[in-house]
Structure formats: structure tokens, C-alpha cells
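Dear colleagues,

I hope this message finds you well. In preparation for our joint manuscript, I am sending the NPH3 family (Musa troglodytarum) sequence together with its predicted structure, so that both groups work from identical material. I would be grateful if you could confirm receipt.
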Amino acid sequence: MVAICDLEVDVNGEEAFLVSKGILSSFSGRLRKLFSKPSLSSTAETSKVVFHNFPGSVRGFELMARFCYNNGKIQITPSDACLLHCVADYMEMTEDASSFPSLIKLTEVYLLGIPCWPWSEIMSALRQCQDFLPSAISSGILDRIVDSVVGRITTAGVGDATPSGSSPESSAFRFSCDTRSSISTRSGIHRAWWFEDLALLNTDMVQQVIASMVLQKVDNVMISRFLFYYLKCGAHGSPSEKRKATETAIDLLHSLDRSCVSCKGLFNILRVASSLRLSKSCHGRLENMIGSQIDQATLDSLLIPAPIGIGSLYDVSLVLRFLKSFLANVGQASMTRVKRVGCLIDSYLAEVAPDPSLEPSKFAALITILPDAARDSHDAIYRAVDLFLEVHGELSEEERMKICCAINHDKLSSESCMHLAGNPKFPSRTAVQALISQQSKLKSLLQNTDSAPPKDSKHKKNRFDNNKLDCSTDNEKLSAQLHEMQWRVTELEKICKKMQTQMAEVMKNTISNPSGSRSLPMLCSRLIP
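The corresponding C-alpha cells are as follows:
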């Protein structure tokens, strides 16, 4: 007997089917409810139904129709069972809705075997769920498949056979995309056998799988390595798709233990983030992650070019945000980490100080943002300030003082103190402070020498007294030299003031008599601040 095709079904606007209303309604509680409404129980020859969110679209409807036309009998693959289960849930094809075999019950039998499915079938089902993700989530199918995937990943440890369809040998080629994942040891490659398969999933599915792995406390190091691999090798498509993949990866990385996330990998994301125009909140999370472990960064990583229109060579503002984040997360709880950052920033200062476009306010912020305890010596800061002042000769005395105040003279070596005292680029007050600091060190040294305990032996006591006498004599000579230098600085200040007055008179006369103007001597030009 030939069935009458009296029902037109529009499936998600992709394709229309002419089917038997009676046959489909006998299996679907949803259709029976729909046709029981007075407005749809017309005597027209053909009725029409439009579905907008049919699971699996055309493929899902064809499988359902085949099941109905074959009186509840159908041969399907495990992955199709997932799709049909969602279709059955959507169309209410339960035992209560029909006296015919239930599609829900049939698919449940298949789904009970998920733990025994080959890896290839598991991944096929997962990829298929991407096409009807909302239905897969609401029906609970996705959770069952994802749990199986995570279980396979966590139980396939070193020494176990990898699931069918993947192997450590085939994985060796995959990691050419990411040096972080290119684990040279055989056991390392084995642990990452699943990277390529999951990298083929779309962003929404990756988010579902990784979120489940985080909840099940899978090794955060492996999760972070996979996410870096996914962004480099798996996240393709339009700019909007790449942006979505990057933002999702950043959110997932942010949920991991910070110590398990590669600082180098985060910098790699940062380099491409500017072209993707990430959301402000997402960019902030990325900066926060980098900042919290900036002590693991290298100088090359920090030398990030400034955005177009800024003017300076490097993005100093970004580094300042990193440091603020580091101090907010770490504070001074770990002085070892803080001092490591201090050494890193000293190297960074040496690179950015010669930039003539760098604003004095940013340079001052950079040398003052870390606590004083971050550095045992301020020689590197002195050298950076010296470089900065050399290329910013137009700075006023006040601006120079604001920058020079960051130098802790007590942490300068004797050589740096002496160099600063005679450095014409530094304000005279700073030179005096350096001399005073050096003098204080000498006084402290003399006091310590005078208070040194005597030796037990008389012979040793005489030797100690002689050494102390020699040391005291040397210290007195050095102290006298410092006093003389301090006096010379004072005299130079007086000469500068006097010459400034003379210069004002010369300039006044030059304006009134241009023909008699002449250039200043080199010495004057050096002495005038």
C-alpha cells in the first residue's frame, strides 16, 4: 500500500519534504499535538509544517523519516545514534507517545555502548554534535560523549595503547606547528596524541571539552599546551572566527593554574591579538595572566613595538600594566620573584632609555614602579637615567629632578657615585646628594673600623693596629678628596649663576646689535644648564 504524501515539511529553510502525515504522527508526539489543534485539523489535501531548529537539519530528518517508514527499524552507526537521540527528544518520540517502537529507546541501547566505541567513532559523534549543539546539550548526549573523551585522554597514560585512530607516531608530525607541544621524548608525544583530533573541532565544542577537563582536574599543563596548539594549528577561518577562538582560548587559559601556563605562549597570543581586535575585557585578562608571571618573561618578549600613532619605539604603557598586575598578584610575598623582575626591568630600561620619543613621565613611572627592595644596586638605573638625559637635553631642571629622585644613592657603587658627581647632565643637587651619600658610607666605614674588637694575640693586635692605621689614613685622604669635590660643585653652581646673568646681558646686547653677535665658547655652553 502506497502512503499518501499529505504533509510538507520545511527543515530549517534548507529543504522541503513531502511525507505521510499519518506515518510520522504515529511515531511523533510533537506532530500529533500539533495536528490536534483546531487551526491545523483542516481538510486541505496537504498541510505544511516549518521547523527552524531541527537537530542535524536535513540529515536528521532523513534518518527519522527512514525509521518511521520502516516501522521502527533502522541500521545506524554509533555517531548517527547520537543524532537520532536528539531528533527523538526534539520530536517527542517516546514510548508514551506511540504504540510503535520508540526511537528514544532504540538510541539508548546504542548509547549504552559509548564506553566501548572506538576512538574514531567517539570523535565522529563529537564532530556531528557540532551541527546540533543546543539539542545535544539539552538532551544530555554531549555530556556523555565528552565524559568519554576526557576519560580516554586521562586513562591513556604512558605505556597504554592509544585509542584506535591515533598513535604517537602519527602525532609526531602534528607538533611541527607548535614547538611548545613538540615534546621530543617518546612519552611526551604519547601524552599529546589527542591534540590533532580535538583541534579539528570548532570553538564551541573545544570550549565544552576543555571546560569538562578542567572540572575533572585534568593536568593543567597539558590543557594549556593543547590550547596554544589549537590557536596555532586548529583555529582557522574568517577574522571573526579567529577572534572568537582566541577569546575562548584566553578565557579557558584564565581558568587554569597560572603556574601551568607558558608565559612564552601568552606572549605569542599577545602578538596576534592586536590584529584581531579582542574585546577589552578579554585583552585585560590576557595582560593580567602575563603580568602575574612577568618574572618568567625574557627581554625580547617585553620589547613589543608601540601601537601606531603612539610615537615611541616600544609599548612602555603595556609593560607598566604588566608590572601593576604583577605587584597586585604577588606583592612582596616572594622577594626572589620581585628581584628577578627588577633585573629584567633594568635590562628593559637600557633598551628604552635612548628612545628620544619616550615621554619623561612614562620613563619616570618605569623606574619608580617597583619597590626599592627589588634592587640591591641602582647602578643600572643610573646608567639608564644617564642615557635618557643625554637624548632628552631639552628637559627642565624640575623634570630632571623628578627622574633623578628615583636613584637611591645609598645603593650606588663608589664608581657610579663619583661619575654622577661630575656628570653635567644631572642636576647639581643630585651630584651633591651622591657625594653626601658617599661621605656617609665612609663615615660608617671609619666607625666600624674604630669599633672593631682587638685580637687575642699581642702580635696580631699590633698587625691589626697597623692595618687600621693604614686604612684610616686612606679613608681620611678619600674623605678630604670628597670634601674638595663638594666644594668644587658649590663653586660651579656659583659660576653657573654668574654666567647665566652674563648670558642674559649678552643676549640683550645681541638683540639690540645683531651685527656684533658671535657664538658662545664651548665651555659656556656646557656649563649653562
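For the figure legend, we might mention the following. The first strand starts at residue 7 and ends at 11. Strands lie at 7-11, 15-19, 47-51.

With kind regards,
E.M.
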